[in-house]
Amino acid sequence: MCDADTSAKQFTVAIVGGGIGGLTLAIGLIRRNVRVQIYEAVTAFEEVGLGLSIGPAAHRAMPLIDPHICDIYDSLVTTHADSPGYERFRQTYFEIVWATGPQAGQVLMDLKALPSGQTTLRRADFLDALVNLIPEGTVHFGKRLRSLEETSTGVNLLFEDGSSVVADVVVGCDGIRSKVKESVLPEEMEQSQPRYSGMYSYRAILDMETMVEAVGDQRARVSTMYIGQGAYAVSFPIMRAKKVNISLYTSSETWDSDTWVRPANRHDMERDFGHMGDHVNALIKHMPDPSQLAIFERRHISTFWKSRVAILGDAAHSSTPHQGAGAGQAIEDAHVLAELLSDPSVMTPAHVTAAFYAYDAVRRPRSQRVVTNSKDNADLLCLRYAGVGDNELKLKEILQERFRWLWDIDVEEQMESARKIMLELLEKMD
Ligand SMILES: Cc1cc2nc3c(=O)[nH]c(=O)nc-3n(C[C@H](O)[C@H](O)[C@H](O)COP(=O)(O)OP(=O)(O)OC[C@H]3O[C@@H](n4cnc5c(N)ncnc54)[C@H](O)[C@@H]3O)c2cc1C
Ligand SMILES: *[C@@H]1O[C@H](CO)[C@@H](O)[C@H](O)[C@H]1NC(C)=O
Questions:
Q1: Domains, the chain, with CATH or none
Q2: Which residue of the set 31, 32, 203, 369 is catalytic?
Q3: How remote is the CA of residue 332 from the centroid of ligand 1, in Å?
């Protein structure tokens, strides 16, 4: 980076969508002296933000993008160490507990995520802090992309408010309903529509005191997955362990609603989780009358880029939530792409196409495998994965193995292998 004047790059990167992926990519590029502009649909990040948890691989990618990102993340997260007396669980991701069967209530395994453990934060807090790292005038709020059109000289971005800009190159980080993806892959939009995945969930946030009363101190304070026949439940501390986030997942072949949320009541929950043992039943007793949320899935797409336009994060590979890896994958994408686009050999929009090619070659297989694994994970946690079922040893082994694959990757090597692909291609182009 030092022996070339990167400010002489003949392009500015237009980023559509300022979520986790868009902002981390922008910060990585700015730090490497690549010009960016960000167009974000909302006018401010919503107060009632979703919670996020990011695993070890993405945690290691954060400081490589920019050390500030990691500092911010570490300062905002809730961990097991927020509960006095539970510091020994600092590196625990989840304790996995049998909900049903002869060992009901006992711990199957303490699944560690080394070294970071379970970490959760509010998405809106993280985004607000990330925006503060970006120079004024770079993020344009209230710009919802309507359509995108490539011309001989660039890419026209047309926004819902009637305004438009011409961009040199575009990265679509606009989430699950990506408009940028529509323009990259119009022919695949039909088959990549969301489909009901065969599971729905109930959600609740309980006070820690209520939670302790319901399931005891350790089950309340340590992140827990309860595994049972055809269903599983997850709880983890949030907000400095003042509250606990609970999700219950169950299988049902059909979803008879047009929307992804439908009203439900206590009896529905009792019917779905009555067989799930004392802990889960105690949780249900304290959960307010809930709604049911359908879990959707999408088919893999054939490419993450076309010409001067690429897609990143959920726009490219949205996943079911059974592995908690969506945001982490967006961060891994951002790390690879920031390094490629800032490489001194990438000077023109034509060179950028080589960067997109390499990004796709390295990131598509891994992120799509994460999507597939997330689906398999649901079957594992519901004790119905072929060849494993409720076999204790096999369950431990396969869960450990799958999370290792997700977490133990050498993120620098991932990036360098993409760089190698790009440099070989650029050599052929010149
Ligand atoms: C229920 C649920 C639970 C989850 N739990 C976890 C978890 O525990 N851990 C984890 O790692 N991941 C989790 N995820 C996934 C995670 O939220 C996403 O993978 C992650 O936010 C993806 O980041 P992104 O930047 O690609 O998209 P987003 O964060 O969705 O950002 C997209 C941005 O683009 C903007 N935008 C959208 N359309 C337009 C447009 N047309 N023009 C301009 N801007 C636009 C949006 O306003 C938004 O700011 C969960 C997801 C869901 C749905
Ligand atoms: C609770 O967890 C779910 C699933 O992981 C997540 O979607 C939701 O945003 C979380 N809510 C809060 C308030 O943390």
A1: 13-78+120-193+301-381+409-422 (3.50.50.60), 195-297 (3.30.9.30)
A2: 203
A3: 14
Q: State the ligand closest to the CA atom of 55.
A: 1
Q: Is 203 a catalytic residue?
A: yes
Cα separation values, 82 from 124, 221, 385, Å: 20, 9, 35
In this predicted model, what pLDDT tens digit does every residue of 304-348 receive, in sequence order?
999 999 999 999 999 999 998 999 999 999 999 999 999 999 999
| Confidence tier at 1 by pLDDT (50, 70, 90) | very low
pLDDT band at residue 2 under the 50/70/90 scheme: very low
Task: Provide the β-strand partners of residue 37.
Answer: 14
Residues 6+ apart with CB under 8 A from 118: 53, 79, 80, 92, 93, 94, 223, 236
Each residue's pLDDT tens digit, 362-412: 999 999 999 999 999 999 999 999 999 999 999 999 999 999 999 999 999
Enumerate the H helices of 32-147 as residue ranges: 56-65, 67-76, 123-131
Report how far ligand 1's centroid is from the alpha carbon of 400 (Å): 27
| pLDDT of the residue at 341 | 98
Minimal-distance CA residue to ligand 2 atom 13: 51
SS3 376: helix
8 Å CB contact between 158 and 315: no
- Helical pair 326-342 and 411-429, crossing angle rounded to 10 deg: 40
